[in-house]
Amino acid sequence: MNIADIHISIQQGLQGNEDALSMPGVPESFEHVSDRAEFKRVQHRPGVELYRAHIVAHAFEPHTHEAFGLGSIASGVERFRYLGSDHLAPQDSVVLMNPDELHTGRAETDTGWRYRMMYIDPEVVAEVTGERGWWFKDAVAHNVISARKLGAMLEQIWQATDKLSFDSLLFDILFEFKRYASAPQAPISLAKQRFAAVLDYMRACMADRISLEQLAQVAGLSPFHFLRSFKAQYHATPQQMLMALRLYEAKCLLAKGLPPAQVAAATGLTDQSHLNKAFVRRYGVTPARYQQQMRTDHARAVRS
Q1: How many domains are there within the chain?
Q2: Residue 194, in any domain of the structure
Q3: Is this structure's pTM higher than 0.90?
Q4: Residue 210's domain is classified under what CATH number?
Q5: Which of 9, 68, 71, 275 has the fewest CB atoms within 10 Å of its CB?
């Protein structure tokens, strides 16, 4: 019996899921004929999300996964903004992103880039490896042998059909990524401790209209002192961070089966059209496809 999985995709000319395609504001495809992206989860191992994509024209807006983003570039070159700097990830390089860090993504070459990623919660990393506090100093590692090995294993885990195979591959993949990790994580700075309360406030009040003054009050700073300090810490404005948190929460609520209109209201977005556009810009798939494929594959798994 195959492991139950959740599979979400969007691509040019993708057939099926006609209800999703007919939703107002939902594009039928990326702008470019070659752009496509797919997410996959397995139900027995929460906290692990697999992703593969070929992106030519799409530009991902700042977003966060609240998980490690670990992957391999199969071809082309990606340019992304991360921790205040631009990074290039060419073919046969390894991508290493820490949790809760905003980042972007776009193609550096005319033919785009192909890549595979695993988004994995820190608690899962600790459970599998027996180590806490993993942290990656460098966003990109240039190691052809390792990148190709990881690319092959990420393809194998995508195709895994039973729990033991999946979990064994998960262990091997994390063991390979371990060579790039520093542990334990560096001590949290005083500024980051101060702003932790601000991020908690954003999460708790994301359905509301939040002002700069409110956030500054939580941090105990004047409004523009707060804005300057926040930007220096996170390399993003409070508004960019709030939108990233809203879209991540929207992704979680959609995964639980909440209607998109309800998700938009719960996360402080203007309406369902706003959700649709913002979701695609950050994750490369529409909310409808993300949720429709999830429901379809879950029902198929239950029947099996």
Answers
A1: 1
A2: yes
A3: no
A4: 1.10.10.60
A5: 9
